[in-house]
Amino acid sequence: MTPQPCPSETPLVKVRDLCVRFSGTPPVHAVNSVSFDLAAGEVLGILGESGSGKSVTLKTLLRLLPERKTTISGTVEVEGRDILSLQGRALADHRGGVASMIFQDPALALDPVYTIGQQIAETVIRHEGVTRRDAMARALEMLELVRIPSAKRRLDNYPHEMSGGMRQRAMIALALACRPKLLLADEPTTALDATVQIQILLLLRELQQEMGMGVIFVTHDIGVAVEVSDRLAVMYAGSFVETGSVADIIRDARHPYSKGLLAANLVGAVPGTRLDAVPGAPPPLNALPEGCSFAPRCAHAEPACGLSPLPVWTGGGGRWARCVQASRAEALADSGARA
Amino acid sequence: MISFILRRVVYTVPIMLGVSLVCFALVHISPGDPLVSILPPDASVELQEQMMAIYGFDRSYPEQFMRWLGLAVQGDLGNSIATGRPVATEVFNAVGNTLILAVTATIIGFTLGGLFGFVAGYFRDSWIDKLATGISVIGVSVPHYWLGMVMVIIFSVELRWLPATGAGPGGSSQWVWDWEHMQYLILPAITMSVIPMGIVARTVRALVADILHQEFVSGLRAKGLLDRGVLAHVIKNAAPTALAVMGLQLGYLLGGSILIETVFSWPGTGFLLGQAIFQRDLPLLQGTILVLAMFFVILNLLVDVAQTALDPRLQRG
Fold it and tell me: Does the keyword Cell membrane apply (chain A) (predicted)?
């Protein structure tokens, strides 16, 4: 585990009370009052199941959501700059220059009729205004950096001429081409098979440390999240329910949903027994229950779970959990200690 | 790439052979007496047989086909029964005129269609989209012979701005790009451009809308491209399919529209074809159809090659 990053004065990313609504009938509340900080050089893993709002949170940082159908409120700052108010060229400068993104499926996220070299060079030309020749040289350098074999030849390859793992390496090369401060990774290993997954994770971790980037890594795979992150945030139904360092959450998760995710992991499972899966399905995002969204699926739910606002338990090292029982357990422990 | 083109060219040989066989067979299967237009109704059986022998209609079909094909390969399509002039000259004259009309109509139709389609797809569900889609639906649905007549009534009969019919002074073989001639071209070209415009607009709209929904467009925005950069990618992605549709449309237009050329008495292949059919002029009919079919084959070849050059996924495999 890497050492905890020291909390600096202005964090690289500062998100406060982020809410994202998609208009429609009925409107969908995809992200509900999410707040977090990311220090420079830190890796935050956002863990959650499909539809929990983790990709939407990530895309908000690049303002990639369809403008006409989306209402965003709250504060999103990257390097102190207000992202939600960026327009036109300033927004385009932010995208790919300051922050860039790795997509889940590089087969879909790369343009099929342009070569890898062209696609990387185009980005470099756009942000740094260099000549085509210099941009191509950078593209080659990037392909070598992500360790694509015979990189020079691969420059002229189209995405369909590469394997899945190779494509994801190319995607990473593209995202890093302009040395962004912030890398947003949207389930970058989900579309890959297990052996390639670990190679890509190790590569990402290595490049992150080498370049000192802040990374937000979104995944539904707790094993992957643990592998790459310094800090974890567990997301459920559009809200963060618990955050803390990887070690804290693995050792001592406080929210029943985090516990459920940990219990549903294959590692340590006894062969022949059923996995301890979280029962039920997340609530529809257009009709969230009052109070705790997880209460309907929670084995320990009680009447207090239906009341808003929920109490937030805070622990050492910036960790917290939004759960009635987590805070009460602490209170009990405290009073017990005092008595 | 070169080996691909060569391979593709070689493939066209059997296609052309098949096409010529079909075109020969179609003409000969159809009922009716080919000599009816030049023989008097009361001609003796002897005279009929004599004429049949002169044109070779008394031989077996395979024999006729081989003879016709052999001469066709050398550029001789026989003589028209009705006029006695060589079919090849007639056809190539008409092809020239149709080319003038079709290429003009194509330029108008593809430019407007591509533009409407692109704008409609880019601003999908906006009022611009609805307007452009409306125009293209009308373009596809309106019967063009009717449109042609309406145009003649408005612009020639009522307003007297443009001539109604013909191809200008000098008739069918004296085309010059000056106003004297070009004023004859305007109405038929606009009328003819309406259908490909509608079809191209609808195709391009669907293509652009589909491409804009693909994830790589998010990818392009995510790496900081401005709108015009994204646009270039969209165009390059849409081009191969749009081109295929345009090639097909150009093929139809080059075939000449019998209806439009008849309405405007434009001396092109469609007009010629109509004449050949009504006069049961077999050599002329056969020759015209063959030349038009060859146009189609060659055009498809060109479209295939262009598509492959534009879309790397189609080749190399």
Answer: yes
